[in-house]
Amino acid sequence: MTAPVADSLRVNGATLHYEVRGSGPLLLLIPGGTGGAAAFDGVVDHLAATHTVVTYDPRGMARSTLDDPAAEQHVAEHADDALRLLDLLSPDAPARVFGTSSGAIVALHLLSTRPDRVERVVAHEPPVVEVLPDVAAHRAWLARVRETFRTQGLMPAMSVFATGLKEDGEATAPEAELRLPPRAAARAERTMAGLPYFVGRIVPSFMAYAPDVHRMSSLTDRLVLARGRDSAGELPCRAAAFLAGRLGVPFQHFPGGHVGLTTHPVEYGEALEASFRTPIRA
Question: How far, CA to CA in Å, does 15 sit from each of 51, 78, 107, 139?
Fold first, then answer.
């Protein structure tokens, strides 16, 4: 893998660790779940052949530290972090942005609030459950996740979380962003270390996020919504599909399921690169 140029950026209430590779148009990759820059290890070299690729650890995860470790987390603040990276690394031109899962929610908010800084956003399965007609049931499920985490701890809360993500409600290993990546032990340890933060502060805030559908309806010429080919019926895919229907934009299919970035990295990287050079058809 190509060695990155690594640096840090001070933002409001945090210090972000970021890495830059390649040359060409700027492409900012926003990870989901407990993923940081390392989440894109399997695709970054392919993308860096045609882009200046920026990966980073979101605030509070891995090497991006919070000034106040107990601070509440908000989508708008995470999107502002992404904006600060764009302002630093592509000050004179709009950039390309990819986000997956909770990172896709960040990318959607960035597009809605600062479309002048974004050439195109590719959002893979943003779990925007607030757009769903049965949102009340999902709010109750998220409340159970929070209460289970408070009263029983991390692993029981992860089980409740994973159950709610599946179409049939069957408890399985928490596939959406919580499956340990099959990489080095140090990376696995970082994943585990980030789970309490993710379940306790990212999940409740991000999955309560309601996208500005009216605003986004005027920006569909620069938005691609994507789903995993194996994700049919799962909650993040269903929410993203409903949003695509509301906006009248087509769905692009990526290899694998919600974590296809991990399970099918070569094919996923090819699909992602193609999504930035294929004209958007509304």
Answer: 25, 12, 20, 32
Q: Which residue has 């990966």 as its token pair?
A: 55
In this structure, how many other beta carbons lie within 10 angstroms of the beta carbon of residue 165? 21
The span from the CA of 59 to the CA of 72, in Å, is: 11
**pLDDT tens across 197-221, in order?**
999 999 999 999 999 999 999 999 9
Task: State the Cα–Cα distance between residues 196 and 202, nearest whole angstrom.
Answer: 9
Distance CA 21, CA 6 (A): 9
Place of tokens 């769905």: 251
**pLDDT for 151 beyond 50:** yes
3-state secondary structure of 210: coil
> Cβ(194)–Cβ(34) under 8 Å?
yes
Structure tokens at 67: 């000034």
Could you tell me the domains of the chain?
5-131+209-277 (3.40.50.1820)
pLDDT at 110 over 70: yes
17 and 64 Cβ atoms separated by less than 8 Å: yes
